[in-house]
Amino acid sequence: MSIPPRIGFIGLGIMGRAMAMNLVKAGFQVSVYNRTRRRTMEFADIGCEVAATPRALAKMADTVITMVSDPAAMEDVIEGPEGVASAFAGGNTLMNMSTLSPDYTAALAKKCFLAGVNFLDCPVSGSRAAAESGQLVILAGGEKAALDRLSPVLKALGRAVIYAGPPPAGTALKLCMNLIVAQLTTGLAEAAALAQAQGIAPELIFETLSANPALDCGYFSAKKDKILRKDFPPDFPLRHMLKDARFMLAAAAKKKLALPVTAAVASLLEKSYNSGYGEKDLSVVLSNLTEPLELKR
User: Fold this and answer.
1) How far apart are CA 144 and CA 25, in angstroms?
2) pLDDT of 297 above 80
3) Is the pLDDT of residue 163 over 50?
4) Most CB contacts within 10 A, which of 36, 71, 252, 254?
5) How far is CA 154 from CA 117, 133, 167, in A?
6) Which of 244, 229, 224, 231 lies closest to 277, judged by CA?
């Protein structure tokens, strides 16, 4: 029987907290690090070691999992004298589950290769509820053998693993999936705004969707209360989707591909971000669509 990995988990935000907790519940030895230390308290209370620095965490673990907000946050925990990279040792594994850019992910994979560290490019599809229930879909890039060794870890986090190829294939697939999520969300918000403008109840949209098997979508159901109540607690903060939309457009431009609908979605996300809605759920774009109507009443 193989020895279970000692896991170091970095990033205890909306998604990371739930994922790290699921690893604890699955019986893994988990140590944690978070830049905002108060988020580590509940893990300390259940017996997890809390590292003072990313380097200290990497010393405690043979597998480090990162779930942070963006490349700048990743750079903070990887680089420098107290970063994870300073404690890299041959044979260890770094599994990134954050959504970064393909270029950054490719550079990180190369850095790990030169250090003799296994790198797994494993962003996830799914938001808060899927993370909490261990039902994420993991979009995996990396060596198959390394992924197979960590299969029990992945199974504790998700319902399925989709193998995409060598890094940054997992990240590339994640951008494709988030493109769909962004457009589904803005499409739903625009439909609700159009209903309101025409004097019909937005509730009728959801009634119609649920009655049509071709359009009855779990994602729409998950956004129903937010759209109807115009209350947007974050399952997926808007600022993260704006970051991802910018990655999508940059990746497309690099290949001379136009994404006109995604460009329009990014513009709406940016408008919402500039309205102060960055920490709210991305369905908050509805507010920017309906506010002019409400001001006229």
Assistant:
1) 26
2) no
3) yes
4) 71
5) 19, 13, 17
6) 231
Domain spanning 173-296: CATH 1.10.1040.10: yes
Give the tokens for residue 98.
């954050």
The highest-level CATH class for domain 6-166 is alpha beta
- For the chain, what percent of residues have pLDDT higher than 90? 95
Domain-by-domain residue ranges, the chain? 6-166, 173-296
Average pLDDT over residues 267-282: 98
Q: What does the alpha-carbon distance between residue 83 and residue 64 come to, in Å, rounded to a whole number?
A: 12
**CB within 8 Å of 210: residues ≥ 6 apart:** 216, 221
In tens, the pLDDT along 167-212 reads 999 999 999 999 999 999 999 999 999 999 999 999 999 999 999 9
How far CA 177 is from CA of 44, 157, 181, 182, 243, in Å, comes to 35, 18, 6, 9, 14
pLDDT of residue 295 exceeding 60: no
Grouping H, G, I as helix, E, B as strand and the rest as coil, residue 131 is helix
Instruction: Report pLDDT digits (tens) over 23-56.
Output: 999 999 999 999 999 999 999 999 999 999 999 9
